Give the backbone structure.
Amino acid sequence: MCVPLPAAPLPTGRRSHALLTAALCAALLSGCRPGPQGANAEDLVGRVLFTAAGSFDAQSGQKARIPGGLRRAVWDQEPKMPLDARRVTIQYDSDARPMTWMLDIEAPAFTARDVAGPDARPVPTAQGGALRPAASSRLRDALVITRPGGLKILTRSYATQVEPALLGAFQPVR
């Protein structure tokens, strides 16, 4: 349990103890955890999901409606990039955006494994090698495809609606 710092000055020993207690409480409450699934991995998955959900749309350089009831947003200028890459494009169904989206990421500073996680399994697709994030991942219903010069991340719902040839990659392991 965290003890609030007293308002009156304390003797050196008690004050340093109170400061140490406050620092430990702050570290525990911030959700810090070590290892490969620590802050950097979670931040990347979080930024991918926030980008997909539209949190950074106001900063995009281009927005357009495209055939099939889809919309597109493009980021290609610093410092407004939602992800560490040269260019980020999202296509999404505006009626089901949290579930139906595809990110095309050019020249990312991260790998497919960084996004999909260490427990992702490789799956073949007609578009190249891909990774299926583990069932415990927040990207569990997505596919991460490695392409020359970039990555493509899409949801099962997007594949169903726009790229049905990729649905086989979403099949469970047998």
The two ends are 47 Å apart (CA to CA).
